[in-house]
Amino acid sequence: MIVRGSRLVLKGSGVVYKNKDALGTECPDGAEIDLSPAQVNAQNEAYQAFAQRRKEVTDQVGGMSDPVDEPVKGSGDWVDLVNAKPVKQVYTNKTIKLTYGDTCRVDGKVQEIGQLTTGETVLHVINPNQLGTECPTGAVYLAQG
Fold first, then answer.
1. Are 142 and 122 in contact (CB under 8 A)?
2. Distances (CA, A) of 94 to 89, 131, 133
3. Residue 141 and residue 123 in contact, taking contact as beta carbons nearer than 8 Å
4. What is the mean pLDDT of each run of 10 residues along the chain (145 residues)?
5. First and final C-alpha spacing in the chain
6. Can you name the residues that pair with 25 across neighbouring β-strands?
7. pLDDT attached to residue 39
8. Comparing C-alpha atoms, which of 27, 25, 19 is closest to residue 47?
């Protein structure tokens, strides 16, 4: 990290720049990100809001497990996960863990497991044949508007 006047410059390897939606892009070695104080503050405020929402949602979702209705076919849409605990995503060459904020495609069956205090419906994925970008069994997301 380098300070140039009133600007903050991040330099080096492994730097990950995250936008207001908490999406990250890994920068190549030696990359510089030049941020004004206002940009640093805006990024910090956005991250704080994201972290607060994550805590509120995962605290509620963590206590949900019993199905409210019968499973139905998933929509095929890409969704943002709200899992309180990671779930395994299996690819042909590796297995990774997905958690809050990660995305996958709903192609298995889904069922409602509850509602947040905000009224948003929480859905749970059942996908015994998951491979690749499909959401694995145990993935949890909020129903789309």
1. yes
2. 9, 10, 12
3. yes
4. 51 48 52 72 84 91 83 87 89 87 88 91 84 85 81
5. 41
6. 17
7. 78
8. 19
Written as six digits, the tokens of 32 are 């510089």
E runs forming strands in 68-139? 72-73, 78-80, 87-90, 95-98, 103-105, 109-115, 121-126
The tokens for 87 are 């779930």
Contacts of 137 (CB under 8 A, 6+ apart): 87, 108, 125, 126, 127, 128, 130
Contact assessment for residue 100 and residue 122, using Cβ atoms and an 8 Å cutoff = no
Q: Which residue has the tokens 């990774």?
A: 96
C-alpha span between 88 and 121 (Å, rounded): 23
